[in-house]
């Protein structure tokens, strides 16, 4: 069996975490690394005055991690710059927030070269190399330039934007060309894959064959759909844990007789938090008799605080939740509990289970794992209702959710009303269809699907979506 080398911006350090605080992606990749042996390589999260390329390795739980420090300027231009001010907004269709700075692009190229230089000596001849996400798109090309012959895969965790948007990036051609250095490139959904293929055909004059191989000139890359899942078994167990029950009871005691509506998101403009609050406000305005029977718990831990747009969205939401609470609260009820902190996963599972409704309403999302976690945490006898944006990748799999247009406050208000009125039999029917998918297409399934494609093995079975 080939060893696996995972390369991503940040590295998850293996922990013997009884509370299960590691996300599904980390759990799946760590378990693949444990199974195959290998290394997880990335940025340490630390800065250094001058880049040295020194590699810090740790070993634990059968996994080796290797990390490097980057310079302050690297972080400004590569991470806070090109990755999070240019590619992230553009890939989430927010051209209005996209910043086009040459320095950012230079930093992005430099850090990808630094990654290539430092990881190259760690890779052995038969290793499978799996690169993750928009931070490292050109890494494959840099590795090939340095003579790497290994099987090289790339997975994008965000959407892939339509060609009309992508072409606004001054160096779009170079970026897409660099993806042809990989053997396999994976996306969460058919939609993102289609956008990529259309770019290849329409802008690059390439072709796509029936195996999903994209060819431009003499270069070919296999393109696949591989929707990421969660560690469903672990999450279902977490939802039944004492910590989850404690969180569940805490929610109930603090709100007797009221239905909890929950939202859990990183504080990011792509998650549609502003539109969600406005949709909930519309529900309150349209349903005076129902007001005091519900409340919204919005959990939104801050992220990327060094980027201005993230500071702006934070103050915007502070103001908006304050205004709605000011307008509608009573002496014994506030409509929105707005919380800016993280929770252990088992507590989160208890909160999901206590919630009659989950509002998962991103304006654009590669997949969205919260939607799947909510489904996994439900009580099979009395499940809640998932209200899901049709613009989240998860909507392609969770078709029995109440799908909405997150830009429409009316749509959201109507969906909340419908969810509150939904009979138990219908809630169970919808939930059963969803949990079947969340169980079958979990994060381990996703990992195998991608690695099988990377190894060139045929993928069989009706859930496989190699296209
Ligand atoms: P994210 O944009 O981070 O991921 P998401 O898929 O929803 O979005 O994952 C967030 C994770 O963070 C979930 O596991 C959630 O439980 C956890 N989380 C959020 N708030 C939390 C809190 N307050 N406390 C504890 N945990 C919290 C990117 C892409 C997504 C894609 C994933 C995986 O943007 O579209 O689904 O990668 O590919």
UniProtKB/TrEMBL annotation:
<dbReference type="InterPro" id="IPR001830">
    <property type="entry name" value="Glyco_trans_20"/>
</dbReference>
<protein>
    <submittedName>
        <fullName>Alpha,alpha-trehalose-phosphate synthase (UDP-forming)</fullName>
    </submittedName>
</protein>
<dbReference type="Pfam" id="PF00982">
    <property type="entry name" value="Glyco_transf_20"/>
</dbReference>
<comment type="similarity">
    <text>Belongs to the glycosyltransferase 20 family.</text>
</comment>
């Amino acid at each position: 069996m080939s060893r696996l080398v995972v390369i991503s911006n940040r590295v998850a350090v293996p922990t013997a975490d009884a509370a299960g605080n590691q996300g599904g992606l980390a759990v799946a990749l760590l378990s693949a690394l444990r199974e195959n042996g290998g290394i997880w390589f990335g940025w340490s999260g630390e800065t250094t005055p001058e880049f040295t390329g020194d590699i810090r390795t740790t070993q634990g739980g059968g996994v080796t991690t290797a990390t490097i420090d980057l310079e302050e300027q690297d972080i400004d231009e590569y991470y806070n710059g090109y990755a999070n001010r240019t590619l992230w907004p553009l890939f989430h269709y927010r051209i209005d927030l996209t910043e086009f700075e040459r320095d950012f692009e230079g930093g992005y190229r430099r850090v990808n070269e630094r990654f290539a230089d430092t990881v190259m000596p760690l890779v052995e001849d038969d290793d499978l190399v799996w690169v993750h996400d928009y931070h490292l798109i050109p890494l494959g090309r840099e590795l090939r330039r340095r003579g790497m012959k290994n099987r090289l895969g790339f997975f994008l965790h965000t959407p892939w934007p339509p060609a009309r948007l992508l072409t606004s990036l001054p160096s779009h051609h170079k970026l897409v060309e660099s993806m042809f250095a990989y053997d396999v490139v994976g996306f969460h959904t058919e939609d993102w894959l289609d956008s990529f293929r259309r770019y290849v055909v329409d802008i690059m004059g390439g072709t796509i064959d029936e195996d999903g191989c994209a060819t431009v000139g003499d270069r070919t890359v296999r393109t696949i759909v591989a929707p990421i899942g969660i560690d469903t078994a672990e999450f279902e167990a977490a939802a039944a844990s004492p910590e989850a029950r404690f969180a569940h009871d805490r929610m109930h005691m603090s709100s007797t007789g009221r239905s909890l509506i929950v939202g859990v998101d990183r504080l990011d403009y792509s998650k549609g938090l502003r539109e969600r609050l406005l949709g909930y406000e519309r529900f309150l305005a349209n349903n005076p008799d129902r007001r005091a029977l519900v409340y919204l718990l919005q959990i939104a831990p801050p992220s990327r605080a060094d980027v201005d747009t993230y500071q702006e969205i934070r103050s915007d939401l502070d103001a908006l939740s304050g205004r709605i609470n000011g307008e509608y609260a009573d002496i014994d009820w506030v409509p929105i509990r707005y919380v800016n902190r993280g929770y252990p996963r088992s507590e989160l599972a208890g909160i999901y289970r206590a919630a009659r409704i989950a509002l998962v309403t991103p304006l654009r999302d590669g997949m969205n794992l919260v939607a799947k976690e909510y489904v996994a945490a439900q009580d099979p006898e009395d499940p809640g209702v998932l209200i899901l944006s049709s613009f989240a990748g998860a909507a392609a799999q969770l078709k029995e959710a109440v799908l909405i247009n997150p830009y429409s406050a009316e749509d959201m208000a109507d969906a909340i009303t419908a969810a509150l009125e939904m009979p138990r039999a219908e809630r169970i029917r919808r939930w059963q269809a969803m949990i079947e998918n969340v169980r079958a297409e979990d994060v381990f399934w996703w990992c195998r699907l991608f690695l099988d494609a990377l190894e060139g093995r045929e993928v069989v079975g009706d859930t496989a979506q190699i296209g």
